[in-house]
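Lecture 7 notes: from sequence to structure.

We start with a single chain of 214 residues. Read the sequence below before looking at the structure.
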Amino acid sequence: MKGLLRTLAILASLMLAVQTIRHTYVLWFAPRTSVLEQYDKPLAKSIDSAQSLDELVQRYDPIRKEADRIRAERKRNAGDAPFPNPRFTPFDDNEEPFKSEQQLHEAIVMWEARAHTISSLRYYWAIGFVFALAGLLLHGRNRWTGITLAIIGLAEMIYWTTPEYLGALTGAGAEFDRLIVYKMTLSIVAIAILILAIWRFRVFAEERVAGAPH
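Now the structure, written as tokens:
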């Protein structure tokens, strides 16, 4: 059983170390700009610089109202035409203000998704922390109960702090940075708990053989 615990400890250490380094890179060292940004319109930069969901909603609201007004007007004009074209499209996503409306809509959806991920991360990581802490505290009374709870807790903490982002990071936004800060911080705390568990359970301590010289 000692061999299994050592294997689990090594794997947990490897996963936490790798993902913490990854979080650090993404947060502080990964390129966030592109040569194509010089061709972007100011709206894209304003979306990236938004610090809250309310800022995005304030920019989205007037554009959405204007887009709805133009849609209604074009649909009404199309309906009044004597021979309406069945292929007529009342609006085009590549035309303003519909293009800006779509960009802001996608930014809001992404922001809300990341906010939900942060909420889930905090909840489930806290549950894992409680399990791990209970395992460390109960180890003195029941060794295997303590080890089992600690493994469950650490597995939960590792799972919810793993990276889930791929590809370019241009246009990631402030909420993305907050997500990475949470994951990096909680990964570091999980490393500390893992070290404490390894010490508490004496995972790498050499067992003395009866009769062997001290």
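The mean pLDDT is 84. Keep this in mind for problem set 3.
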